[in-house]
Amino acid sequence: MAQDIIKVNTNKAVQEAMDALEATAQKAGATIFARVDHAAGAEKVGMSIPANQLLIFGNPALGTPAMEIDPRAGLFLPLKVQVYEDSEGQVWLAYEDPKETMKDLDNVDKSPVIEKMRGVLAKLTSKAAK
């Protein structure tokens, strides 16, 4: 499962990297559905974890073709990218490889739309990490 998760390191703080990711995704035409602050959630229950946020976003131009092939693709959409600080203080942008995530669906992983999703995720995380 770990090989299904793609990680991009950054020298930015979690908040700064997440802000950059959100802005980059919006510029690319994505709809931002939610931004989840896991560390803030932990604080609400008296626990503490390093900075950790999740961005949930999508674009029907990418997601709809996958769901036309197999409606269960909707289980894995919209796309998500996590920005988190690890135990050594390194900040990462991480996401699941859509080809791996959707490999058990009917031919979705063989569709050109999956390569587009992979390209979008790689481009967005790379830009946000710089």
UniProtKB/TrEMBL annotation:
One Pfam family per UniProt: DUF302
Organism: Pseudovibrio denitrificans
DUF302 domain mapped to chain residues: 36-98
Protein name: Uncharacterized conserved protein, DUF302 family
InterPro entries linked to this entry: DUF302 (IPR005180), TT1751-like_sf (IPR035923)
Superkingdom as given in the UniProt entry: Bacteria
